[in-house]
Amino acid sequence: MDALILRCNIIRCRANLEHRAVVTTCSHIFCPTCAESHGLIINNLSPNASIHRASTSHTHILSQRSCPACRSALVAPDDAVLTVLNPSEEYKTSLLSGLAPGVIMEVAGRGLAFWGYQAMQEVLFQETFARNLGEKYATLNAQLDKLVHDANTEISGLRKKLEQVTLEREGVERRCLELGEIAREKGRKALQFQDLYDKLKRKMLLANVQNAANETAEKMAMGGVMIGGHDQMHSHG
Hints:
By secondary structure, this protein is mainly α. It has helices at residues 32-37, 56-63, 89-95, 101-236, and strands at 20-24, 29-30, 80-84. The model is unreliable at 44-55 (pLDDT under 50).
């Protein structure tokens, strides 16, 4: 039981309680700051003193006082007291001195019941905290799974698009190679036609030159014949 660390029962506070605290008859405990802010103690109270015992004005305050943890009414002066959690040896000796054994046992039993209640509350808090943490973890895990699934789906889609683009690129490359081969083949044929054309042209030019030479030779031959006949006619005359 000593291993339990008492904490302020205000959930938003839960400060460790080591020196002083305010305890209530409903088995709750609070740090002095929270107790004061909720109207459980007054600044000028000394440790182990009752909130108020006689003042009429404070009686009205006590009538409106309640536990901030369970809302139980704390109308009696000793329903909430400021106590020292690490009392001196002298205080331990004098605290229960003079009380009847039955009263001592009753006080000790109530003190142990207080610790048992605080331990149970701490266990419930830790269980609730663990459950909430587990639920948040499950939610985050589900979100992470969804994120991973969506990412994998997107990656798969991008991979398919990449494969499609790759196939299209390969098709374009093949088409370019085919067109290049066709162009080279047409170029070779064009060179062949050009060579053939040049040969035909040279042949035609040669034929024209030969024809011209033949015509010239024939004209010269015919001219020589005509000149020879004319001379013979003059000799006979």
